[in-house]
UniProtKB/TrEMBL annotation:
GO terms for molecular function: hydrolase activity. Coiled coil: none annotated. Residues 70-175 form the Beta-lactamase-related domain. It comes from Seonamhaeicola marinus. This is Serine hydrolase. Keywords: Hydrolase. Pfam families: Beta-lactamase. PANTHER family: BETA-LACTAMASE-RELATED DOMAIN-CONTAINING PROTEIN, D-ALANYL-D-ALANINE-CARBOXYPEPTIDASE/ENDOPEPTIDASE AMPH.
Length: 403
């Protein structure tokens, strides 16, 4: 009998080989169920074609004739890696030319929120709490709680419906420990409707250690201490998400500056240097993980096709409320519900000069397909849209063909 423990015991300890082996984790019955469903379709009903999807992704990224400086994608079906490739440069000629690759780390930006949400679901269950419970008792005692904070729930943060006051820039200030403390003191001063704010998830850098500290056997945790909350957030994520997938040393600190991926505008050419992102430890929670494309694909596989990270019930709840996920127009979901998370960091609101990163994960449960697309460039002309998520949706929707 094949078990997850058998599979883990056979995984190579090397980080790269470990990552490549994620394709073996799927359960055979999942594949059979999806294939059986497809086989039962009438012959005149369009079916999903993964080869078309791959070509669409490539064509849509390169539609404007201005390919990213470096980019990569993976396409998996039922947890098995089926299609993948990497193109271009992690560093251009001005920065000491280095090819981009599937196993090259990149700042995944707000895709980090999806992983934070998984950790929250784990800890709420472990503490016999639900997403409807209030966060106030889990905040540092010394923080002044402003108006409305006593009625602020975990769900409010996870859905970006907190009503808190913050901005999505000046990350070291707004997402640092003092910035979080100030935000809670200001309180809920806006309508509790969806307003995408990084601070909603940065607060989990404190709340995750706080929830963890309440469990038997947890390490000593001082949530009144900035450095300790940083360390304990990252430690919990490593032990309870990445270690479970045999992904060692995943964190919010980049590779050495001399070899790390740098971030460009598509118009930079070979002579303009790129942006370097240093440590995100002090502002993590809502962003900042550095991971390879293959590592991101592995998390997708385990989340979607096993109960190693979350139970089926937890996964269903995350999808129902789009916890740690983006919301899209349902009209775009023409073949069942799609679930994804985007990430983007840029130096300017002007796409012609902004240097930065764009990332996207999407899961298509109806076909068992999921994909990852990352690029170390802003300003790329995508086919028919400026949204990387929308581009992937369009590529998927255009990949249903007559049998």
């Amino acid at each position: 009998m094949i078990t997850m423990s058998n599979i883990f015991s056979n995984l190579n300890k090397s980080k790269l080989v470990n990552t490549l082996f994620f394709l073996s984790i799927v359960l055979a019955f999942t594949s059979c169920e999806v294939e059986d469903t497809l086989n039962e379709l009438q012959t005149n009903t369009p079916v999903f074609d993964i080869e078309t999807f791959e070509q669409n992704l490539i064509d849509y990224v390169e539609a404007g004739g201005d390919s990213p400086i470096g980019w990569a994608y993976t396409i998996s079906r039922n947890g098995n890696l089926e299609k993948s490739n990497a193109y271009g440069k992690a560093r251009n000629a001005a920065d000491g030319s280095m090819d981009f690759a599937l196993n090259k780390e990149i700042n995944i930006a707000s895709v980090s929120k999806f992983y934070t949400a998984i950790a929250v679901m784990q800890l709420l269950e472990a503490n016999n709490l639900t997403i409807e419970d209030d966060i106030v008792d889990w905040l540092p005692n010394t923080w002044v709680k402003g108006p409305g904070v006593s009625n602020l729930s975990f769900k409010d943060l996870l859905k970006h419906e907190s009503g808190l006051q913050s901005t999505n820039n000046n990350f070291d200030t707004t997402l640092g420990y003092q910035g979080l403390k100030d935000c809670i003191e200001t309180g809920v001063v806006n309508a509790k409707t969806r307003n995408y704010l990084n601070v909603n998830f940065a607060l989990y850098r404190v709340l995750i250690p706080s929830l963890w500290s309440n469990l038997n056997g947890s390490p000593a945790i001082d949530i009144e201490n900035d450095a300790n909350t940083q360390f304990m957030y990252l430690l919990y994520m490593q032990e309870n998400i990445f270690d479970r997938l045999s992904l060692p040393l995943v964190g919010c600190f980049p590779e050495d500056r001399t070899v790390s991926t740098l971030y460009y505008n598509v118009n930079d050419g070979s002579n303009n240097g790129g942006q370097y992102y240093g440590s995100w430890n002090n502002k993590s929670g809502g962003g900042g993980y550095f991971m390879t494309t293959l590592e991101m694909a592995k998390v997708n596989a385990y989340f979607e096709h096993t109960e190693i990270l979350v139970s089926k019930e937890q996964r269903d709840e995350m999808k129902l409320h789009r916890l740690g996920m983006d919301i899209a127009d349902p009209a775009d979901e023409t073949h069942g519900n799609y679930y994804g998370k985007a990430g983007s960091i840029g130096t300017s609101s002007d796409p012609s000069i902004s240097q930065g990163v764009r990332t996207q994960i999407v899961m298509f449960p109806g076909t068992g397909v999921d994909c990852v697309v990352v690029m170390n460039s802003q300003g790329v002309t995508l086919q028919g849209t400026t949204s990387l998520r929308q581009m992937i949706y369009d590529a998927y929707n255009a990949s249903w063909v007559q049998p």
